Amino acid sequence: MSKKSIAKPAEQGDNPEWTQQDFARAVPMSGLPAGLQAALKAHTRGPQKAPRKVPVSIRLSPDVVNSLRSSGAGWQARVDDILRKHL
User: How far apart are the first and last CA of the chain?
Assistant: First the structure.
């Protein structure tokens, strides 16, 4: 089992719970002015220019996977490096 950190709730002033009144006042994106819609959409990440990796699914022994995962973040990149060295 991986040890993921649990996000702590934000301070109440930074991220308060929405009330029924907040939901009632909410406006869908299509209801916003065109300029604001464009500005908000501009902050989304676009597609990669050229995919660098190909997604695959392989079956590995549990001890192999556990060993790799226990080495910490970036374990999948290390698998790629190990396989590349053995080509």
Answer: 31
Helix (H) or strand (E) holding 22: helix 20-25
CA distance 3 to 72: 10
Instruction: Please tell me the predicted confidence (pLDDT) of residue 48.
Output: 73
The answer to whether 41 touches 30, Cβ cutoff 8 Å, is: no
How far is it, in rounded angstroms, from Cα 65 to Cα 76? 10
Return the structure tokens found at 26: 């909410």
User: Residue 22, Cα to own-chain centre: how many angstroms?
Assistant: 27
Q: How far apart are CA 67 and CA 72, in angstroms?
A: 9
Token code pair at residue 49: 């220019």
The answer to whether the pTM exceeds 0.70 is no
Dihedral, CA atoms, 61, 63, 64, 70, nearest 10 degrees?
140
By C-alpha distance, which of 79, 86, 87 is closest to 56? 79
